[in-house]
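G.,

No rush on this.
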Amino acid sequence: MSPSEEKSQYARGWADLMKLVRNGHSWSGNERNRFFRNSADGYFHEMSHLAGLDQAEDGRALAIVDWDQDGRLDLWYRNRNAPRLRFMRNERDTGSALFIKLEGTRSNRDGIGAVVELLPTKKEGAKEERLIRSVRAGDLFLSQSSKWLHFGTGKNEHPRSAHVIWPGGVIEEFKNLPSKGRILLKEGSAKAIPLPARSAITLPLKTSPIALRDDGKAHIILPARVPFPDLRYQNGAGIEQKTTLPRAPRLLYLWSAHCSHCRKTLPLLASQASAFRAAQLSILALSVDSDQEKARALIKSSAFLDPSGSLHPAALTQLADFQAQLFDRTPASTVPLAILLDENNQALAIYRGPIPPERILADWTTLRSAHPTQLYHLAPPLKGTWFTNPLPPREVHRLYPPSISK
């Protein structure tokens, strides 16, 4: 295999992997979050469930901070999937804590790179405790935790002292530090400055994610003219044909006799036949049913006179592949599904669910002669325009090659 072939194979592998992830598969193999407690005897104990941190989410970034300033470290973490951002408030009784903030004068202002060693005041018979923390610029994956240094002091309320090794190697001693609260250690001052707690910050409690309503409708203007696959079907006379012929603008409408929306929409399309002809847009209605007797009966009862037929089963796979190329998350194969095609068999718009014929005709009036840049700016579903330029047609054809009928 040549280097270029290896590169292409690698790129295809990544593309297939990302497609799986965007369709809801877990990047991490459906592993639940894990939390381990340091028992201070050389062992860690898994207690994810007891701590309430065993969510089945694809976790990414983690930041540690005393958010509510109650002396206990809380967690912010970000997930690849929803909820994208989660706050976990620490409510465990952990005793007292001392928070130290550094301010450099000769070294950098945030004291990044400094090491603080907190020592208790020596008492006869007291056990020597050495707590060491350092200030880091970024830790964990794509994360920045608080620059406040947290020292758990428990119930020991004796004054403390601290050795600070500032960036550059200068060692400075700070004496008579409190056992709890918040203090500032300024380089060169040798004094601890008490700092007040900030005002309380509250967050609304969310017991579950907000459910988004899905009414089954979709009105999608594509950002470019996308090559559409050549689909096989049988017309009303049982003769096999392809959707590329004749080469003329058309609305490809896929339906089923078992679909209530389809049974309502076919008569509407039939009633608008003259308006579609005036707009030089034909309709090709293709049933996806295996029982064509019911399909033909519905076409007849709807007074639908435009071309119709039944879609070849292999064409359903082509349609699924076509939509998978267009969207990050592959949509489910449902009907009614309509695709607006130009005279070169290029898709301009996609409609799912019951869409009024008037909406389709209005789109065709706008899109039939739209410049690539105009088409590009019509695509966003929200108000506004792109700040980038559209892809040239050759790049669109390379990204979305039409499927080949077999």
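When you get to it, here's the other one too:
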Amino acid sequence: MKVVLAQTAPRLGNIKKNLELHLKTIDWARREKADLVVFPELSLTGYKLRDLVETVAADPERSKEIRELKTLSRDVGIVFGFVEERASQKGLFYNSAAFCAKGRILHIHRKVFLPTFGMFEELRFFAPGRNFRVFDTPWGKMGLMICRDFLHYNASYLLYAGGAETMIVISAAPGRGLSGGGGFASSRMWELMGEAMGRFSQAFVLYCNRVGLEDGAAFAGGSFVFDPMGRRLAQAAYFEPELLIQDLDLNRIRKARKNWPFKRDDKPEVTLEALQRIVHDLDD
């Protein structure tokens, strides 16, 4: 399986220009014979939307832009980020990610953990998602997370327990603090999660972050791919746009789970019982 992580810089509020960038990137990925191209969080709209949220919101069943991306997914799978507002839920806006393949939407994930502190203010404008689900694709079972979701390791565990073989994270993570390696110190946090979740979930981890500037925020880039043994296969540059392309040997999933039987020995029923007890105790 060949994947492309499209580390791009979306234009704030400009769906037309952002769609053009998607189409250009998808065309390039198709010529490179890629199977899947992954774009960052809110790739169709930009991140720091604030009062633009309502203006750029799209119903995935009615949006002409999403319909065009669905059509293109007949040739190459596409993951992209957008602001979702369904006709059945008027006035509720979600920070969402769509997975399209074979000309249709296979899954939409709504961001569950919405950061609202410091420079982050997502809960002011978005409703939280309520679930993490694994879904079938032409390349095996996959799961989606959006940015902060990935830093809550219970999210990765739910995908792992559900049988995910590939975890896809789309992100708009700003860079904070400089590291000795020339990147952001905050990028190390994401890389550690990628390594740990790849290793102990025995799944591929695809993390696609954006770059560029918005309202004083500098987005870090540094997109990466980890394999089911926690080995980093590829990483994009910090700061700069890049199309990171990587072949994935899906047989590595079987090999990892055969050699280290974490998945075989997992006991989600024990986790469920313990969580029920913890939640009950919190209510007392």
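The two ends are 50 Å apart (CA to CA). The mean pLDDT is 95.

Enjoy the weekend,
O.
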